[in-house]
Specification:
78 residues, mainly alpha, two-stranded parallel sheet, 2 strands, 42% helix
Length: 78
């Protein structure tokens, strides 16, 4: 799913998981891995987005406080 989102033009893709191999694969395809065992994934994504200057500069007036993701996909499977 992460790779498909990037292929379709997503500016950022976060993969939240606890399995190191899956997080490493996410990083390999260009997604941003977030290990939920290391802490609250929502807070971690907020931290990452605040540091990403491209996101801050692309906001329209009134969007300054929108730090979360624009879209989310909850996917499981084999």
């Amino acid at each position: 799913m992460a790779y498909s989102a990037l292929l379709k033009g997503a500016a950022e893709v976060y993969v939240v998981d606890k399995v190191a191999e899956r997080l490493e694969k996410a990083k390999e395809v260009g997604a941003i891995p977030v290990d939920f065992i290391q802490g609250d994934p929502v807070e971690r994504i907020f931290e990452i987005r605040q540091k990403h200057h491209g996101i801050q500069q692309s906001r329209r007036p009134g969007e300054e406080k929108l730090w979360g993701a624009d879209c989310a996909i909850d996917a499981v499977g084999r």
